[in-house]
Specification:
Distance between the termini: 9 Å
Order of helices and strands: EEEEEEEEEHH
Structural class: alpha+beta
Largest sheet: 4 strands, antiparallel
Strand order of the largest sheet: 3-2-7-8
Number of domains: 2
Low-confidence stretches: 60-65, 125-131
Shape: elongated
Radius of gyration: 17 Å
C-alpha cells in the first residue's frame, strides 16, 4: 500500500488496526508498506512521523486480503530479487514442496526463473492504495 502525504521522514511508522508495519520505502511525499495479515474490514490507519507529528487516513482504510502470486516465494507481497534468488538457490532440484518450483511441475528450472522475472515488481492484483 502507498500513503501519499507531505513531510514524511525516514523512520516514520504506520499502524493499521493497532498493528505496526515496517515501511518498505519512504520519500517526503509517499510511504509504501505491506499490509499485515488481518481480518477483512475497516481499520484505522495512523502514520507517526519521527518529528512526533501524527496523521490519520480519513475514514480508516478498508482492504481485503488477496492471495499472493506463486512467484512471491517469500510472501512479502511483491515479486522481486529475493524471490529470484530463492529460485536460483533451488535450481535443478526436483521433488515436492520446493518453494522455488513456481509452476509446480516438480522441478525448479528455467521456467520458474522466467515466471518470477516476468512478475518483477508486481503487487497482488487487488492491492489497494490509500491516498
Amino acid at each position: 500500500m502507498t500513503i501519499e502525504g507531505e513531510h514524511l521522514l525516514d523512520g516514520a511508522t504506520v499502524l493499521i488496526g493497532g498493528i505496526k508495519v515496517v515501511p518498505l520505502s519512504i520519500t517526503p511525499t509517499h510511504l509504501t508498506f505491506t499490509t499485515p495479515p488481518s481480518t477483512e474490514g475497516a481499520k484505522p490507519v495512523v502514520v507517526r512521523n519521527v518529528d512526533a507529528k501524527v496523521g490519520f487516513v480519513d475514514n480508516g482504510d478498508t482492504y481485503t486480503d488477496t492471495p499472493l502470486s506463486p512467484a512471491d516465494i517469500n510472501g512479502d507481497g511483491v515479486v522481486n530479487i529475493l524471490d529470484l534468488v530463492r529460485v536460483a538457490s533451488e535450481f535443478g532440484q526436483s521433488g515436492d514442496d520446493l518453494p522455488g518450483d513456481v509452476n509446480v511441475d516438480g522441478t525448479v528450472n528455467i521456467l520458474d526463473l522466467v515466471l518470477v522475472v516476468s512478475q518483477f515488481g508486481q503487487l497482488p492484483a487487488a492491492a489497494p492504495q490509500v491516498e
